[in-house]
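Question: I have long wanted to understand how a fold can be written as tokens. Here is the record:
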Amino acid sequence: MPRVLPAVLLAALAAGPLLGQNALPPAPRVQSFPAHFTFDPAASAVLRTLWAQSSGEKREYVACLGGDFQGDTVRVRRVLTLEPRAADSLGVSAQQSIDTCGPPDWQGTVHTHIARYDGERPYANFSGADRGVMLMWWKRWKVDGMFCVLYSDRDAYCEVDGTGGLTNMSRSAY
């Protein structure tokens, strides 16, 4: 059987580039996503108080987050603690946080995870129910949101979620 295909390919390559001056198509534009979360001192102070109240009362607390997206950083500047109502001992009403924690003043939510899954180690990520609330928040506001869970007196797990899907996951000290 004759080897026609390799000969045709060699002739095409010898004739010059297939795509103008560059043999490769242009690289796709890569969207830059935030690399980490930072917390202004005033926001950190409110979050530490939120954690202390939550762990002292053995009750989950929720707050609104205000801040901005700066290049590769999400900067949390403000925190508004929500008063628990219409909730059990592990949480506040999801609808309350969705209604209150939206633009333009707020860009998402934070809540405490005081429960321990083996009596010692914290739940250091979002639960399935948490993700459902984040989705409801996005459906309501249709903008990227910042979401954090506090899982110790100094540690937070945060994500940016929204128009581009999940775009950032960060463990941060607050």
Notes: The longest strand covers residues 62-70. The radius of gyration is 24 Å. Residues 41-57 form the longest helix (17 residues).
